Amino acid sequence: MAFPTAVNDQITDAVTQSNVKVIGEAPAMALGSLYQSLAHAAGIAAENLVTQQQNANTVSLAVVTACTEALLSKTSADA
Which domain of life is it from (predicted)? Predict the structure, then answer.
């Protein structure tokens, strides 16, 4: 310690070690948070892709249904 205090040296050493531990773990916590955010964003992007594909399939089905109905509704006189 830089200067003597009225506090027990063991207590100040314990507090100092706790502070060093917290500061030492900060980069790992930051990277963990970053990885979790990236995984969440990738999951949302995949969910959006699936939704877009489902909507495209619905539109395709509607177009096929409309074309089939148009073909079947024609009579031989129309052709």
Answer: Bacteria
